[in-house]
Amino acid sequence: MQQGSKKAIVAALVANFGIAIAKSVGFVLTRSAGMLAEAGHSLADTSNQALLLLGGRRAAREADETHPFGYGRERYFWAFVVALVLFSMGGLFALYEGIEKLRHPHATESLAIAIGILIVAIILETFSLRTAVREANHVKPADVSWWRFIRTSKSPELPVVLLEDVGAEIGLFLALIGVSLAAATGDPRWDAVGSIAIGILLVAIGIVLAIETKGLLLGETASQDVIAAISASISAQPEVTSLIHCRTQHMGPDELLVGAKVEFKRELDFAELAAAVDRVEGAIREAVPSAVTIYVEPDLRRAAGGE
Q1: Boundary residue ending a domain (218, 235, 265)
Q2: Looking at the chain, which terminus has fewer C-beta neighbours within 10 angstroms, N or C?
Q3: Burial (0-12, 13-18, 19+ Cβ within 10 Å), 284
Q4: What pLDDT, in 10s, does the model give residues 21-45?
Q5: DSSP bridge partners of 249
Q6: Residue 183 shares a structural domain with residue 247
């Protein structure tokens, strides 16, 4: 795991743990449904950051006989678990609590305490989001939008933390609006509506994260820029006549499997061909350091459909 990703996760973990405690105390004092929903949200986020750190630690294990390509996909698996936790422990819990209070409304107590805790939580959450944005800017190309970065990043931690923090910021404002409207109108159902809105938001974020991490977990190809760099490095070798095709798959965020079928000059003998294959592999690794496993198959280009 990159140092920037780990720094963003730790910042989010510390912030969310403190926020979860504050919101839990706030719920006990105010009996606010929105506050309870946000407490569940922060507890879910805290456990999620712990799971991301666990995934990074387990993914760092060396390859062995049962996992010859290593454990890089552990990071994708635990990111997928995070999406499920956010969906269930965060989103569904908030929906349940909001619906229950909508059916059986009761007045929110100690409004000043609730608002104060939510404002402090917003400040802490802003710190966490700011850290995640700063670390993501180190790896996000300037011409790539944030949404595209989340959709295309092969490293799951930063997109997960970014979406969690954005969802947390919006959720806190929803809770603040719900509590304030409940106090201003004397109708506690507004607090319930805030909780339901938080639940819908978290369910939506959980679904987006599940869809994105599912693709990574199943095995996605490298980006077009990386594939172009691999193809160029192969074609640049003097013994290569043409690149017939190239296949890539991420075994982890920083571990790429590359398979290439290459046409070499026909006058090469066996020793020369073996040396040429070694040079092609070296060129690929030089162009794309994340290409840790490479298979190059010498072949002859045939008619269309005969590869």
Answers
A1: 218
A2: C
A3: buried
A4: 887 887 787 777 667 777 777 787 7
A5: 257
A6: no
Q: How many CB atoms lie within 10 A of CB 99?
A: 15
Closest CA to 123 of 22, 49, 199: 22
Write out the residue range of the structural domain in which residue 106 sits. Answer: 3-218
Q: How many domains does the chain have?
A: 2
**pTM exceeds cut of 0.90:** no
**Structural contact between residues 242 and 235, judged by C-beta atoms closer than 8 angstroms:** yes
Instruction: Tell me the pLDDT tens digit for each residue of 156-214.
Output: 888 888 888 888 888 888 888 888 888 888 888 888 888 889 889 889 988 988 888 88
First to last CA, the chain: 37
What CATH code is carried by the domain that includes residue 143?
1.20.1510.10
- Distance between CA atoms of residues 146 and 141, nearest Å: 10
305 assigned to some structural domain: no
* 185 shares its domain with 228: no
As beta bridge partners, residue 297 has 261
Beta 255-264 vs 291-298: how paired, if at all? parallel
d(CA 183, CA 227): 58
Tokens of 276: 């040429």
